[in-house]
Amino acid sequence: MDKLDIARNWLPRYTGMQLEEFGDYILLTNFSDYLERFAERYGCPIRGEGHYMQAATNEEGLTIINFGIGTANAATIMDLLVAVDPKGVLFLGKCGGLKASTEIGHFVLPIAAIRGEGTSNDYFPPEVPALPSFKLHKFVSEKIVARGLDYRTGVVYTSNRRVWEHDEAFVERLKGLTALAIDMETATIFIVGHHNDIARGALLLVSDVPISPEGVKTEKSDAAVTRDWADIHLDLGIEAMTEIATQGEAIKHFRF
Fold first, then answer.
1. CATH code of the domain covering residue 236
2. Residue 226: which of 199, 206, 251 has the closest Cα?
3. Largest CA distance in the chain
4. How many distinct structural domains can be found in the chain?
5. Would you write out the chain's pLDDT as a tens digit for each of its 256 residues?
6. Which of 12, 160, 183, 240 is the most exposed place for a label (fewest CB within 10 A)?
7. Rounded CA gap, 97 and 183, in Å?
8. Distance (Å, rounded) from C-alpha 70 to C-alpha 224?
9. Which helix (H) or strand (E) holds 3?
């Protein structure tokens, strides 16, 4: 079996969704709540209950996948999606703000991600930058502005570390890198998307400000962010990935 054969076999096995059920445009998330809101809104079934991942596709042909948390899962889903050759993939994730100007509830549209997670090194050498597809991000930014919302743009640091807030040396290193935010998936999605020739982007929601002791995420604070911002975050993703097919420019780059 070659890579495509494996992906075609494994994508339904991981998600419980048959290949013909996937749409041309994909939303990725690591929150079951986003998937459930999507399915309830469109009255579409959730595939993959009891599977490693879950997915749903609405009548407009937009698919959302809850792939789990972390870079290994992010790489896995971006590898398996070659089975359906999507026209665009947008990650709806959360991140921690690393600058005073980045507050809880802000949206971040990364121009690049620092590859601090290690997983992406299996795909390209470290000097290859982790970048989104420019025209996909351009369209997402237009949708944000059209709603009268603000967003931040800059570089996100992606790490495999989850509990690092106590590590003063790591915190100082983050400050030295001047990254806008930190997360656990964005760089991997960008790099594996590049490796597999998949147009990709990320719209992140700042859910905590972990560089200050009082800003570290807790169950209570995360629930408040979800209550106040999850619907608009999901709305922006749905609107952008539904309309880009008819209103957006072609988002894949030419090959030379």
1. 3.40.50.1580
2. 206
3. 51
4. 1
5. 799 999 999 999 999 999 999 999 999 999 999 999 999 999 999 999 999 999 999 999 999 999 999 999 999 999 999 999 999 999 999 999 998 788 888 999 999 999 999 999 999 999 999 999 999 999 999 999 999 998 999 999 999 988 888 888 998 898 899 999 999 999 999 999 999 999 999 999 998 887 665 555 566 666 777 777 899 999 999 999 999 877 766 666 544 3
6. 160
7. 9
8. 22
9. helix 3-15
Q: Is residue 254 part of a domain?
A: no
- Domain containing 62: what range? 3-247
- The DSSP string of 131-189 is ---HHHHHHHHHHHHHTT--EE-SEEEEES-SS-TT-HHHHHHHHHHT-SEEESSHHHH
Residue 194 lies in a domain: yes
Phi-psi category of residue 190: left, alpha or beta, with phi > 0 → left and psi -120 to 50 → alpha:
alpha
Q: Is residue 16 part of a domain?
A: yes
Question: Based on C-alpha coordinates, what's the Rg of the chain?
Answer: 17
Beta bridge partners of 115: 158
Residue by residue, DSSP assigns 92-123 as EEEEEE-STT--TT-EE--SEEEEESSGGGGT
